[in-house]
Amino acid sequence: HIRLEKDDGLFSFIETGLEADEGSNFSNYYKVAFGYWHSSAHFEDFSGKERNHNAGFYFIGEKSVFAEADPAQGLGLFMQSGFTEEDRNQVNQYYGLGLAYTGLLPRRDSDTLYFGINLARNGDDYVDAAAGRLRAESALELSYQAEILPYLRVQPDIQFVINPGMDTQVDNALVLGVRLEIDL
Question: pLDDT tens, 56-67?
Answer without folding.
Answer: 999 999 999 998
